[in-house]
Amino acid sequence: MNSQVVDTGLFERYVPLNALRPESQAELARKTAVLERRAGELLFRAGDDAPQALYLLSGELQIENAAGQPLSRIRAGEPASFHRLAHQSPRTVSARALSDLRVLAVDASLLDVMLTWDQTGQFVVGDVANHTASIGDDWMTRLLQMRTFQLVPPAKLQAMFMRLQKRSAAPGEVIVKQGSPGDYFYVIVEGRCIVTREQGSQKPVRLAELEPGACFGEEALISSDRRNASVTALTPVSLMRLAKEDFELLLNQPLERRLPLADAQALVDSGRARWLDVRLPSEFQDHHLPGAINLPLYMLRLKLAMLDPKLSWILCCDTTRRSAVGVFVLTQKGYDAYVLEDGVPQKR
After folding, report:
1. Is 67 exposed, middle or buried (0-12, 13-18, 19+ CB in 10 A)?
2. Which among 66, 75, 119, 115 has a CA at the least distance from the CA of 99?
3. Residue 325 has what pLDDT?
4. 343 vs 319: CA distance, rounded Å
5. What is the DSSP letter of 228?
6. Is the separation of the CB atoms in 233 and 173 below 8 Å?
7. Would you say 221 and 182 are in contact if contact means Cβ atoms under 8 Å apart?
8. How does DSSP classify residue 250?
9. What residues pair up with 184 in beta bridges, in sequence order?
10. What is the pLDDT of residue 254?
11. Between β-strands 94-97 and 215-216, what pairing exists: parallel, antiparallel or unpaired?
């Protein structure tokens, strides 16, 4: 596969790319590429996820059903080529190159965000770009591609970007200290940080290394508890931070999707969701919902690979505090997650 960064001029006749504001097109172009396929090669298969919106630039392709039987043909320059190719996810059909192809591949999630903002008339990329002009802006694109931020209403998301504050840290500087009250939510713009946790008199345990685009600090803000780990700059670091009150109003409240027990149980019974109990193992062993998986909150980030991303996850604890933190973590990583309203039912 060959790819190259594209010019926004390619968007001119493709729907709905050509309806975006110039500022939105420029932002989207950074996550767009031109792909090439040889005659006979598959562009995508039925059942594949569709992370990219694909448009035919040149050549001819054949749409096939899951059994490989031809359904239709699309030629570049014809009306059908100006629209997204089988953009449902997962894809319901396959596409095979009948000649050498060039295809425009656009980040589908970011396109959806830009369309929402442009159609509501509430977001202007230039406003945020000016607000953060002294720092590179690729961090903003990375945030917009996270499911966490795509679930936030456009007006609140714009307000969030406008209220972010700049902060820098030198190598070795502690940005948040374990045991201190939660005050800010952080996004790394440039540089790298290390996350550590102290356990009694033992040497601090290294939990993770964070790179540009990573977020931290939400646990203490959502749970109204003290920091459960320290974050220290490994290199010179540029950060954006959001104060606790703004985080609660603009991010946490819009994301905290709750389900009552009856609705959650129906979703689990349908096979489309599973219970995820984020309490400690000792709490889980004493009483838990049938079929629940136990993954304590402090292990959640480290064990995400255990969770099927195709399922919805209904998080539960004794109240809703820990599950609310877990939902934020999961949605940030692209999972569909809910909080069980009122927590795990009491043992009878």
Report:
1. exposed
2. 75
3. 80
4. 5
5. S
6. yes
7. yes
8. I
9. 243
10. 52
11. unpaired
Report the distance separating Cα 213 and Cα 137, nearest Å: 10
Longest dimension (CA), the chain: 70
16-30 b/e with 16+ CB inside 10 Å = b?
ebeebbebbbebbbe
Hey, what long-range contacts does 57-61 have (CB within 8 A, 24 or more apart)? 57/10, 57/101, 57/102, 57/103, 57/104, 58/100, 58/101, 58/102, 59/97, 59/98, 59/99, 59/100, 59/101, 59/102, 60/97, 60/98, 60/99, 60/101, 61/85, 61/95, 61/96, 61/97, 61/98, 61/101
Q: Cα separation of 66 and 136, whole Å?
A: 44
* Residue with the two structure tokens 């790179």: 211
Tokens of 159: 């307000």
Strand-strand pairing, 336-340 and 258-259: parallel
- Determine which helix (DSSP H) or strand (DSSP E) holds 188, and give its type and residue range: strand 184-190
Residue 233 amino acid letter: A
pLDDT in tens, 242-265: 898 888 887 766 566 889 999 999
Closest CA to 330 of 296, 307, 298: 307
State how far the Cα of 175 lies from the Cα of 168, in Å rounded to an integer.
9
Q: How far apart are the first and last CA of the chain?
A: 59
Q: Which of 214, 195, 210, 208 is nearest to 139 (CA)?
A: 214
Q: What is the pLDDT of residue 128?
A: 42
How much is the pLDDT for 9? 92
Over the chain (348 residues), what is each successive 10-residue block's mean pLDDT?
A: 68 89 85 94 94 95 95 94 88 96 90 66 43 53 69 71 90 94 90 89 85 85 81 95 86 73 96 94 89 90 90 91 82 86 80
Which pTM value belongs to this model? 0.54
Q: Which of 59, 60, 56 is nearest to 72 (CA)?
A: 60
Q: What pLDDT score does 167 carry? A: 93
Ordered DSSP codes for 266-293: HHHHTTSEEEEE-S-HHHHHHS--TTPE
Rounded CA-CA distance 108/335 in Å is 16
Which amino acid belongs to residue 139?
W
Give the dihedral sign, CA 253/227/245/238: negative
At residue 104, the 3 state secondary structure works out as strand
On the 0-12 / 13-18 / 19+ scale of CB atoms within 10 A, 216 is buried
Is residue 263 left, alpha or beta, with left meaning phi > 0 and alpha meaning psi from -120 to 50? Answer: alpha
